[in-house]
Design brief:
The chain has helices at residues 14-21, 27-30, 115-137, and strands at residues 2-10, 34-43, 46-53, 59-67, 71-78, 81-93, 96-107. By secondary structure, the chain is of the alpha+beta class. The longest helix is centred in the C-terminal third of the chain and has 23 residues, at 115-137.
């Protein structure tokens, strides 16, 4: 199991940060581990999709639930990894927002041998994504 948490304080309003993180179709722009997204079904704040990740161009099936101005909860239900990625936003001050990203995933099959390397890659990718989100929100 790979479980870790990364957070970043962003000098921007909650609304601005929410506009970026909740536009999940733009995910490849910020999360470079995400190569492409194909939405399968949308029902209100719940989106089912297929995501091609940079890890050997593997396909993951996900269910994304948007909790307006609070969180983007991604449940990875099929692919080389399974588990959750939750992005939560909290107001710190008038123009300062904290973004918390919590990963809780399991690497399946043969790829499990590379769990440590994959965790490092995802952790660094998350920090980089938060930096890109911060820059876009400025």
């Amino acid at each position: 199991m790979v479980d870790f948490h990364i957070s970043k304080d962003i000098e921007a309003s909650q609304e601005k940060v929410w506009d970026i993180v909740s536009d999940v179709d733009r995910e490849p722009e910020f999360w470079y581990g995400t190569k492409s997204i194909k939405n399968i079904k949308k029902d209100g704040n719940v989106i089912e999709r297929e995501v091609v990740i940079s890890f050997r161009n593997s396909v993951c099936r996900e269910v994304v639930t948007l909790d307006p101005k609070k969180s983007v909860n991604i449940k990875i239900i099929d692919g080389p990894i399974k588990g959750t990625k939750n992005i939560m936003i909290n107001v710190i001050a008038d123009n300062k927002t904290r973004v918390n990203v919590q990963w809780d995933i399991k690497i399946k099959g043969f790829f499990g041998l590379f769990t440590g390397m994959i965790k490092k890659h995802i952790s660094e990718g998350t920090e980089d994504a938060l930096q890109r989100i911060s820059k876009a929100a400025a």
